Amino acid sequence: MTSTPSAAREIPLRNGNGNGSTNPGEDLTRTVSSSFGTLDNLSKSPTATFHSTPSSYGGHQKPSTKQLKPFHTEDIKILLLENVNKTGQEILRKQGYQVEALKSSLPEDQLIEKIRDVHVIGIRSKTQLTASVLKHAKNLIVIGCFCIGTNQVDLKYAAENGICVFNSPFSNSRSVAEQMIGTIIMLARQIGDRSNELHQGIWNKVSAGCWEVRGKTLGIVGYGHVGSQLSVLAESMGMKVIYFDVVNLMSMGTSSQVHSLDELLKQADFVTLHVPEIPETRNMISTHQLEQMKQGSYLLNASRGSVVDIPALIKAMQAGKLGGAALDVYPNEPAGNGPHFNNDLNDFTEDLRKLKNVILTPHIGGSTEEAQSAIGVEVAESLLNYVNLGTTSGAVNMPEVSLRSLTLDEPNHLRVVYIHKNVPGVLRRVNEILGDHNVDKQMTDSRGDVAYLMADISNVNISEIKALYQSLEDLGSRIRTRVLY
Ligand SMILES: NC(=O)c1ccc[n+]([C@@H]2O[C@H](COP(=O)([O-])OP(=O)(O)OC[C@H]3O[C@@H](n4cnc5c(N)ncnc54)[C@H](O)[C@@H]3O)[C@@H](O)[C@H]2O)c1
């Protein structure tokens, strides 16, 4: 879960310079820094205060939590492109990392030059991190996509080279839900048409076909992050809420789950779609489903453009079946702003534009300042958790692995992260190496060809760390070894 900026705390570091305590583990001084693949790059304890990160279990770390660090914070180079939100930049700067933030993306040759050096890169949707770019990124351990989509990154290549990728899929859920509330009222009152008419100088004061939303039934298809937020908002305006989801889900407020899409379509005055884009949801609202809807009802789609059969919707509108519709997403969407919304984009566009009481918006459901800021926090914290703790919760190309945090009374413990090829026999070899030590806890998971192992080991001295690291590095299955302590 994303933690809000206001929830941030400053936690004294384990060296005791903040709270007067001494570190009983001074014998394990930070003279080994092997996380990024070299034992020559030695480091000391970071001296900056620490922006709190969630514990390995997702909540905030308790003050007694031991802060793991891979090596001297100043060694870590972070490149942020495309004007990543300031909230995210600040979180990373507070760590003492070297952060370079640029306002735009970079042409490929300049990107390759820059990426050679950095351990972390943050991008938005324009920067293409293809295999041919990533092959130059010898130090890179993690990519943060400060946006929803991750198509711009070669996820498979990244995983196979031990580079974890994070994004922020849910930071804008509230923004979408609020847009839906506004749009429901606009449709019920035909406000889009009245506004267009007045812009053309036409005064058209009508009440026929205009309704309050109080007491009307809202049917939510897909009761996830957006759908459930919308449910709460709609009820507070006096709407009755029903929802359909493939998963049996706890209702918010007094809403209720129905058993089938058809049941929802027959009961709802407003049908709003919040499902993912998957083969099962392709054209899930087409001619048959539109026929099931109540006469004069409304359809809203802010999920993905493939979910509604738009030519079928156009026919239903032309036949007077629906009272209105709102679309925020389309099967094909332009890459940039400009006069692109025409039949070259989707061959039904001109017909769509002619329809009355159809509100068309350019995929802006999640586009708010608040969402951008929340994305900044969420992705920056994922990056910190990965760099400092090795946890992959929320990763899009690696298995999700986390361990409960180490505490201050475990000074001579260290955490081993071993990213490896998912081939038979690896765990036996790894455990032969780790088995010489006391393994406090361990977790491993795989995703496709790549597996991720985390283990916390107690009472380790420096010479053992070096040997242990080298033994793991020498295994043929190794993709990347990191040691955090
Ligand atoms: N317009 C925008 O700017 C914008 C912004 C954010 C998200 N979105 C889109 O909105 C949609 C919902 O996002 P979310 O964050 O709530 O996703 P989510 O994963 O939290 O929720 C989706 C829900 O749909 C359910 N579902 C899956 N298949 C279903 C089916 N066949 N029938 C009924 N329910 C089904 C899932 O069980 C889940 O509860 C996604 O398509 C997302 O890409 C659009």
Automatic annotation (TrEMBL):
It comes from the Eukaryota. Residues 20-67 have a biased composition (Polar residues). Pathway: Amino-acid biosynthesis; L-serine biosynthesis; L-serine from 3-phospho-D-glycerate: step 1/3. GO terms for molecular function: 2-oxoglutarate reductase activity; NAD binding; phosphoglycerate dehydrogenase activity. Residues 1-68 are annotated as: Disordered. Residues 415-485 form the ACT domain. Its EC number is 1.1.1.399, 1.1.1.95. It catalyses: (2R)-3-phosphoglycerate + NAD(+) = 3-phosphooxypyruvate + NADH + H(+); (R)-2-hydroxyglutarate + NAD(+) = 2-oxoglutarate + NADH + H(+). The keyword Signal does not apply. InterPro entries: ACT-like_dom_sf, ACT_dom, D-2-hydroxyacid_DH, D-isomer_2_OHA_DH_cat_dom, D-isomer_DH_CS, D-isomer_DH_CS1, D-isomer_DH_NAD-bd, NAD(P)-bd_dom_sf. CDD domains: PGDH_3 (cd12176). The keyword Membrane does not apply. GO terms for biological process: L-serine biosynthetic process. Keywords: Amino-acid biosynthesis, NAD, Oxidoreductase, Phosphoprotein, Serine biosynthesis. Catalyzes the reversible oxidation of 3-phospho-D-glycerate to 3-phosphonooxypyruvate, the first step of the phosphorylated L-serine biosynthesis pathway. Also catalyzes the reversible oxidation of 2-hydroxyglutarate to 2-oxoglutarate. Belongs to the D-isomer specific 2-hydroxyacid dehydrogenase family. NCBIfam families: PRK11790.1. This is 2-oxoglutarate reductase. It comes from Recurvomyces mirabilis. The lineage of its organism: Eukaryota, Fungi, Dikarya, Ascomycota, Pezizomycotina. The gene is SER33.
